[in-house]
Structures are given as C-alpha cells and as structure tokens.
C-alpha cells in the first residue's frame, strides 16, 4: 500500500478560533483587519485556560466609531441610524418623520455665557434673531424630541424639566416690546425642525395673531408683542401657541389636528406640573399658558374644557395680585389681565352666569398699576397706552362689552323668579341694566365720541358698536319676556343689527366682534331676506376668521331656522336651549 501524505492543517488565527468563526487564513485575516485588532496565529495549546486569559487581557476592544449625527427620531428611539438623507432607512421603513439636527455648538456656548454673565443692552437690529429673549439654548424641552406626525393615541411624553426651570424663563430685564415686529419670522426658533411645527408657528404669526387682534398695525398687535417673546424662551408657551394655531387650521387643514392635539396635551401636562409652584414665584408663565389653552378650546367651539382653564386662571390671577404687592410682576401682566377679563365675560353668554371674577375694579387696578416703571429703556421709548391694548383685545369699547356681564347676571337671576314679588325685583334689576345700555356712552359725549376716543376712528367701529348695542337690548328682552317674535322691540333690534352689519366691509379687523349680534339677530329673525344676509356674513367669516366656533354658530342658526320652518307658526323656538342641549361647547361672543 502506498502511504498517503498527511493533510496540511488549516491556518486559523486565535481570535477566529476563540469565537468559532471561519478564518480565511491570511495574515492578518479579513475579520481582524476589519475590526482593527491584532491577528495572532493559533497555537497548539490554544485551549489552555491560562493562555486564553492572557490573550484576553492584552486583546484590545474592537474599534467602533460612535457619531452623534443621526436623525432625531433614531436618537429618540435609541437605534443606529444609517444617516441616509433626506430620510434614513428606519424612518422610511416605519413611516416616521426623519428630522435632522442643526449644528449649533458655537451658539450653545455663547448662550451659556450670556446666562452666567450680564450683558449690555443690545443695540437695535433689523432682525430679531439675535436678541437675547429669543435664545432658546438653555431650555431643556425641544419640540423636535418626538415625531411630527405621531398619532395622539401613541404619544407618551415625559416632561424633562422641573417647574423651577420653567419659571426661570421669565426675565423681567428683557423687554418684549423692543422687537421689530415687522420682520417677524420663525427664525428665532431654530429648534422647530419639524416642518409641521414651523408651519404652525408661521401661521400663528401671520394669520392667527392678526385675526385675534382688532388693531390694524403689527406694532399694536398685543398677541405678537407679548406672546411671541415668551414663546421663544419658554416651551410651555410655545406648545400652547402651536396648539392654538392648529385649532385655527382644523377645518381647512385637518391633517394637522393630530399634531395640534399632541401640543395641547404636552402643554396641559406641563402646566399641571407648573401650577404647584406659582405661589412662590412669577405666575405670568402659567397664566399665559392657561389663557392660550382656554382660547384654543373657546375658539374650537366643541369642547367644554375651557371652563377648567378659565377657573384655574382665577387662582393664577390671585397669585399675580399677591406678587404685585411684593414687586414681582413683569411688565406684560396688564395684557394678561385684560385677556382674562375678555374671555371671562365672553363665556357668560353660554353659562348664563355672572363672570368668575366679579371684582372688576380690583382687576382694573391691577391692570392699571402693574409696574412702577419700564424695566428697559427701549420699553420707555415705545409706550403702549391702555386704550390701545383695550382696543386690540376687545375691538369695541370695553365699557360696552362688559355689559354682557350684567345681562347674563340677570339671566342667572331667573331661577329666583318664582312669585309676583320676585318677578317685580327681577324686572327692576333688568331695568337697571337697560338703563346702563342706554347711558354707557354718556361720559364720552355719545357713541360717536366714544368710538373716536376708544377705537381710534376705525370706520367700521361705529357700526360694530351699534350692532353690539342692539344685540344686548335684544338679549335682555329675551331674558325678561321670552323668545317670541311678535314684540316690536324684536323687529327693531333685528333691523338695527342687520343694517349695521351690512355697513361693515368683508374682512374687517372688527369682523370677529359681529358673532354675538349675528346670532342674536339670526335667532329672532323671521324673514328670508334677513336670514340670507346673516348666513352670507357667517360664510364669509368662516374664511376670514377661520375658527371652528364660527362654523358651529352658523350650524346653530340653521337648526333654529329649520325647526321654526317645520313647527307651527305660533311655536316658539328657543335658540339658547338648542345651544345648551346640543352644542354645549359653543361660546357666542
């Protein structure tokens, strides 16, 4: 027999043998070369424990390069990102938004120096992107921490900031007034990397805020003047504003409704964590967030959650009044008090109760005597009168608007109208309110002079005031005498409202002030001509104003007209009962 040559043993490195993987036998092998580790040949006694331990001691770890340039979604999910742009593989596979962080290392170091050391007052600049109040680097909660189109049911948010950190965002030394509002863009909010969030913020600046303000000029827009600087420094205010902007777009762009719900839930949770601290420090931040969330619910026209926000804001007002006595109030608190009084009075038409805060004089004192002086020289150079801010919030004279409180207080007293004696007292109280409606403008020299002094001569203001006054008279008559249409006062009021509304041009800044007169006239009109005029105006306002409560108000009137047409000629259709039983979230103001 011929002897066969022994087979040559296969060359294997020690590392591949240790992990029981195939080795190509090269020196170094491909695996060790790829991992940048030493490639040692396998010895015959490789499996001895001592040698293996010795090899493990000197064996370096495999070189793994870790980078921090992955997309925000993969970083949040703690997954490796392949960094394919514009959308990485995981985000494309899971249908998630793929947002990329911007490089702002130098900006962060600069902002930290600004916090630790005082800086001089910046000189006026044609752009607000470099003003200190728009520096957002020191605040922990960023809006790009979660996917932009995440469904509301899947969203879970852990608030990463303590309430004290939130309250540190209020800086009394910065002036929200020293801002060139004519150049406002979303640029001061670099952390809004989500396209949806940038669109919502841009929509608030250019559409929502001008709709809310009755003032024509950007400089007189109190919502931009005060809300935007606070939103740039405090994420709780920013998310509240984005939720309000999404509510305005709910009818026209319904796909952003889920995004708005995420922001609304986030702001509500942050506010709940902040509330226990408001008695110890500034309440402005919590108050303005609560008021913006209340506006989002009121203007939506379907939810009743605005009652909770409005009630909670009363406690914040009390804290604000307490801090005022200790000198801890920021300069913009007067606007917060005005906005609360406006929303509180607006809600009384739906609740048929007195306003939550009935101490009007105390609120006026708080609004008038908020600060001892300007906290910044630039603030003194651009004073804003109380009359200008009143007009921006109300649109019509404040004295006339707050007669709604008196009318609905009479409506609340109907429950005590049980016998002849109580009826006499009830009518006496109603007569006092009617006298106030007749005489509210006497101290100004009449309606024309009141409009000239309080509404800056707006050509539409006189007709808006006239329509609102007729609406108050009609509402008071319905409370006292009922909802019948045969009384001459009803016919006169409907004609007065319709004639005044027709004199106001479409798209007027005062158009949102017309909803209360429109509903009053629509609930009491009997002619097809008047119905078409009122319906046409509401259809226009759905586009010019845009909020959901305008749509619901038109639906309310169409239900009233339909039931009046279907019922007998002598039947009384009560629009207020329909609103209360079928559209409880609708607020008419």
Largest sheet: none
What helical percentage do the residues reach?
40-55%
Quaternary structure = single chain
Question: How many strand segments?
Answer: 0
Report how far the terminal alpha carbons are from each other. Answer: 113 Å
Mean pLDDT, as a whole number?
76
Count of helical stretches:
28
Give the topology string: H per helix, E per strand: HHHHHHHHHHHHHHHHHHHHHHHHHHHH
* Anisotropy-based shape: elongated
Describe the structure.
The protein contains 28 helices and no strands. The chain has three domains: 45 residues, no CATH class; 230 residues, no CATH class; 183 residues, no CATH class. About 19% of the residues have low confidence. With 589 residues, it is mainly alpha-helical. It is elongated and about 115 Å long. Helix 9 packs across helix 10, helix 10 runs antiparallel to helix 11 and helix 14 runs antiparallel to helix 16.
